[in-house]
């Protein structure tokens, strides 16, 4: 039987937004339109799909967006999509709007939704868009570079005042389940300690002893990068101040890390990944996710991608500790 020609591709962004998502949307739209395929944008992720917030996208609709932070389609977290009823409704709405293929730009959770839609007959391809860098099949996720640079610059500023006052600073970065932003900032900002959700039982007594020793070694400040998943930064700072007698302040960087104009790296990866995703759908592929591994763009089965857990490279964490003397 001849393969059914793809006529309409849908695109949505889901989960936490990430700088570079607009470049990925633009690439999907222009690649598909360039091949004579209609493109429909779905607003607010799976929630917008269930609410039928579906619009046509032209090449001009994505003009002047490659440099913008956030996502022009907006995004959401949607509980209903986690239920079989929600997934069936979403698949039926795709069919109602003639969407033969769907590009889902988001993180691991969004890919789980894409996998369900694929099982229900909607061809889906995932594009990794998350500041968390926590998708195992890819060395790169769109948004990480911008987010980690934003955090790094903010931490440099906190370090300036922390050094002037000879304080300890607990600086909380994003990452509810993933410690990559904490690890990279820990290395890039020369932090004394990095706390990540993957390394659950950090030893506060040891940190306190280290702060006291580091003072004796002549250190003028002490920076602890703490991931959101470990949290408790304000109380942690109070406990450290009481135990060490060193003034300690907590700074929670928060959602500033998800905003801002995407870096060159994010724009380039997003453009290529978005375009490749549209091309896979045009070839009739489904249940795939785009990744970047060993210097090349590749695609993987979503089931395979979701079954792998991305580990923190232990040796990198150890190097960060070695450099913090
Ligand atoms: N197991 C699942 N089955 C179906 N849909 C899911 C599943 N897990 C998540 N989703 C859908 O994907 C949405 C986004 O997932 P999640 O909140 O985990 O963010 P994400 O895509 O991992 O991005 P990020 O972690 O960067 O914020 C959820 O709100 C839900 O609608
Ligand atoms: O927008 P929310 O719901 O606060 O999400 C925060 C979470 O999203 C992420 O920023 C990823 O998008 C995580 O690092 C963080 O834990
Ligand atoms: Mg996620």
From TrEMBL:
GO MF: 6-phosphofructokinase activity
Short name of one Pfam family: PFK
Keywords: Allosteric enzyme, ATP-binding, Cytoplasm, Glycolysis, Kinase, Magnesium, Metal-binding, Nucleotide-binding, Transferase
Compartments, record wording: Cytoplasm
Binding of ATP, residues: 16, 77-78, 107-110
EC number per UniProt: 2.7.1.11
Enzyme class (EC, first level): transferase
Record's subunit section: Homotetramer.
Name the record gives this protein: ATP-dependent 6-phosphofructokinase
